[in-house]
């Protein structure tokens, strides 16, 4: 049955971000939101048909007003659907015991090197059925939706064998087919060196390069290839080998870079022309300069720094250096167990020196660029997918000022209302499995 058109009316601030689809937004342009006051949007067939002042849209659709479902956004802010460009969505179990160990003084890497951390979640994920992984991730996606996220990237990386990495990627594909949120998949077999290769990590790199990457690429289940380039995990040389192998098979490179220690990760991202470099808490000034020069998007994860009690990446410095900055939750069970993009935006302002305008750009169009989706989503423009969020806030600054609170009122995904008054609408609340 054809769906009714939606007419969203009288938004106090309609944040359009128009004209930002071709290139990631950098520098002072990250302060320009292209806001329409008393704005309206006409949505039909899943996409945006018209974005303008209320009087213009209603005059144009005068003869069809009766057939539309009208949403009154008076006194509210409307933005593009939020985009989370870095999650480890599909996994089993949780690690609150390690959280307590860290509060008592152990570090993230100490726990991982003792066989916990990523290894802990890998054991749980390997043991889990595809069905259980699907159900857990589906509920996680529902929470993302309630926080206004309409597109996200999902990494594998808790399987660490071809069989179990493929299991994670299959679950992500099934979620893409059944859940309203759009999912872009990344292969991250290089998330940790499995215990059995601890004394010969290059052997595991050989397996990644010669066996896993070609099979994953052939399956079509992933678009990107990611590696945890960190002291004690994969060296810059191993990371380069893994990412180049992915590129040879059509998988675009991404990298977990300079998270715990400065490790030349940003420089490697620039040299390879990676789509994004993520984390970057300890990136060098030279690495930042090279990323700006090569157009590598910096995906910053202030929730991870907050949760690990580390000093956040210097978002301010990166923007001032001309790097396109995006924000993400880094949702995973160890270093960032949260689905709240709004809180991540709060942290962008409060811990990384970013402004309310910049965090909005970083959580929408630049996040879309970080996962090659900016042609479809990330701004409110005619022809784009109708992904929008109505926030119960009088202006966009208020969204950062009233921190830690979920102000999401309504979410529209591909032209369908999926969240209303902060709650999931009936049809999306139950997993179809
Ligand atoms: N740092 C590496 N990987 C994840 C954490 C994974 C985990 O601890 O389970 C991250 O991006 O923070
Ligand atoms: Zn990550």
Automatic annotation (TrEMBL):
<feature type="binding site">
    <location>
        <position position="95"/>
    </location>
    <ligand>
        <name>4-imidazolone-5-propanoate</name>
    </ligand>
</feature>
<dbReference type="GO" id="GO:0005506">
    <property type="term" value="F:iron ion binding"/>
</dbReference>
<feature type="binding site">
    <location>
        <position position="158"/>
    </location>
    <ligand>
        <name>N-formimidoyl-L-glutamate</name>
    </ligand>
</feature>
<comment type="function">
    <text>Catalyzes the hydrolytic cleavage of the carbon-nitrogen bond in imidazolone-5-propanoate to yield N-formimidoyl-L-glutamate. It is the third step in the universal histidine degradation pathway.</text>
</comment>
<feature type="binding site">
    <location>
        <position position="334"/>
    </location>
    <ligand>
        <name>N-formimidoyl-L-glutamate</name>
    </ligand>
</feature>
<feature type="binding site">
    <location>
        <position position="86"/>
    </location>
    <ligand>
        <name>Zn(2+)</name>
    </ligand>
</feature>
<protein>
    <recommendedName>
        <fullName>Imidazolonepropionase</fullName>
        <ecNumber>3.5.2.7</ecNumber>
    </recommendedName>
</protein>
<feature type="binding site">
    <location>
        <position position="330"/>
    </location>
    <ligand>
        <name>Fe(3+)</name>
    </ligand>
</feature>
<dbReference type="InterPro" id="IPR005920">
    <property type="entry name" value="HutI"/>
</dbReference>
<feature type="binding site">
    <location>
        <position position="335"/>
    </location>
    <ligand>
        <name>4-imidazolone-5-propanoate</name>
    </ligand>
</feature>
<feature type="binding site">
    <location>
        <position position="86"/>
    </location>
    <ligand>
        <name>Fe(3+)</name>
    </ligand>
</feature>
<comment type="similarity">
    <text>Belongs to the metallo-dependent hydrolases superfamily. HutI family.</text>
</comment>
<dbReference type="GO" id="GO:0019556">
    <property type="term" value="P:L-histidine catabolic process to glutamate and formamide"/>
</dbReference>
<keyword id="KW-0862">Zinc</keyword>
<dbReference type="InterPro" id="IPR006680">
    <property type="entry name" value="Amidohydro-rel"/>
</dbReference>
<keyword id="KW-0963">Cytoplasm</keyword>
<dbReference type="GO" id="GO:0008270">
    <property type="term" value="F:zinc ion binding"/>
</dbReference>
<keyword id="KW-0369">Histidine metabolism</keyword>
<dbReference type="GO" id="GO:0019557">
    <property type="term" value="P:L-histidine catabolic process to glutamate and formate"/>
</dbReference>
<keyword id="KW-0378">Hydrolase</keyword>
<feature type="binding site">
    <location>
        <position position="332"/>
    </location>
    <ligand>
        <name>N-formimidoyl-L-glutamate</name>
    </ligand>
</feature>
<dbReference type="GO" id="GO:0050480">
    <property type="term" value="F:imidazolonepropionase activity"/>
</dbReference>
<feature type="binding site">
    <location>
        <position position="158"/>
    </location>
    <ligand>
        <name>4-imidazolone-5-propanoate</name>
    </ligand>
</feature>
<feature type="binding site">
    <location>
        <position position="256"/>
    </location>
    <ligand>
        <name>Fe(3+)</name>
    </ligand>
</feature>
<feature type="binding site">
    <location>
        <position position="259"/>
    </location>
    <ligand>
        <name>4-imidazolone-5-propanoate</name>
    </ligand>
</feature>
<dbReference type="InterPro" id="IPR011059">
    <property type="entry name" value="Metal-dep_hydrolase_composite"/>
</dbReference>
<dbReference type="GO" id="GO:0005737">
    <property type="term" value="C:cytoplasm"/>
</dbReference>
<keyword id="KW-0479">Metal-binding</keyword>
<keyword id="KW-0408">Iron</keyword>
<feature type="binding site">
    <location>
        <position position="330"/>
    </location>
    <ligand>
        <name>Zn(2+)</name>
    </ligand>
</feature>
<feature type="binding site">
    <location>
        <position position="88"/>
    </location>
    <ligand>
        <name>Zn(2+)</name>
    </ligand>
</feature>
<feature type="binding site">
    <location>
        <position position="256"/>
    </location>
    <ligand>
        <name>Zn(2+)</name>
    </ligand>
</feature>
<dbReference type="InterPro" id="IPR032466">
    <property type="entry name" value="Metal_Hydrolase"/>
</dbReference>
<dbReference type="Pfam" id="PF01979">
    <property type="entry name" value="Amidohydro_1"/>
</dbReference>
<feature type="binding site">
    <location>
        <position position="88"/>
    </location>
    <ligand>
        <name>Fe(3+)</name>
    </ligand>
</feature>
<comment type="pathway">
    <text>Amino-acid degradation; L-histidine degradation into L-glutamate; N-formimidoyl-L-glutamate from L-histidine: step 3/3.</text>
</comment>
<feature type="binding site">
    <location>
        <position position="191"/>
    </location>
    <ligand>
        <name>4-imidazolone-5-propanoate</name>
    </ligand>
</feature>
């Amino acid at each position: 049955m054809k769906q009714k058109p939606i007419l969203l009316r009288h938004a106090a601030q309609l944040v359009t971000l128009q004209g930002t689809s071709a290139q990631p937004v950098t520098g002072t342009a990250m302060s320009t939101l292209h806001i329409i006051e008393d704005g309206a949007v006409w949505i039909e067939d899943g996409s945006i048909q018209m974005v303008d002042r209320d009087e213009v849209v209603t005059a144009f659709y005068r003869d069809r007003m009766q057939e539309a479902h009208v949403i009154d956004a008076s006194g509210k802010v409307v933005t593009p659907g939020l985009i989370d460009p870095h999650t480890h969505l599909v996994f089993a179990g949780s690690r609150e015991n390690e959280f307590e160990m860290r509060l008592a003084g152990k570090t993230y890497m100490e726990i991982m090197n003792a066989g916990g951390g990523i290894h802990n979640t890998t054991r749980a994920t390997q043991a889990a059925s595809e069905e259980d992984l699907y159900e857990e991730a589906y509920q996680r996606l529902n929470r993302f939706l309630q926080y206004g996220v309409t597109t996200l990237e999902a990494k594998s990386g808790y399987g660490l064998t071809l069989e179990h990495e493929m299991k994670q990627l299959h679950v992500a594909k099934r979620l893409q087919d059944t859940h309203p949120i759009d999912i872009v998949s990344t292969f991250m077999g290089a998330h940790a060196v499995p215990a059995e290769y601890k004394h010969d990590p290059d052997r595991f790199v050989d397996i990644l390069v010669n066996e896993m990457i070609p099979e994953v690429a052939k399956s079509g289940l992933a678009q990107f290839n990611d590696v945890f380039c960190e002291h004690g995990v994969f060296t810059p040389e191993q990371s380069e080998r893994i990412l180049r192998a992915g590129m040879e098979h059509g998988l675009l490179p991404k990298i977990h870079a300079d998270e715990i220690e400065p490790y030349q990760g940003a420089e490697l991202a620039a040299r390879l022309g990676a789509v994004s470099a993520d984390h970057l808490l300890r990136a060098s000034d030279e690495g930042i300069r090279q990323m700006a020069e090569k157009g590598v998007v910096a995906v910053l994860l202030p929730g991870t720094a907050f949760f690990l009690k580390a000093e956040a990446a210097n978002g301010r410095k990166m923007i001032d250096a001309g790097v396109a900055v995006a924000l993400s939750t880094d949702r995973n069970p160890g270093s960032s167990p949260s689905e709240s993009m709004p809180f991540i935006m709060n942290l962008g302002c409060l811990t990384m020196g970013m402004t309310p305008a910049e965090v909005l750009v970083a959580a929408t169009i630049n996040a879309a660029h970080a996962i090659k989706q900016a042609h479809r989503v990330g701004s409110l423009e005619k022809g784009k997918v109708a992904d929008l969020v109505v926030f119960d806030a009088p202006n966009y600054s208020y969204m950062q000022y009233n921190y830690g609170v979920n102000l999401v009122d309504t979410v529209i995904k591909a032209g369908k209302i999926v969240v209303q008054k902060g709650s999931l609408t009936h049809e999306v609340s139950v997993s179809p499995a």
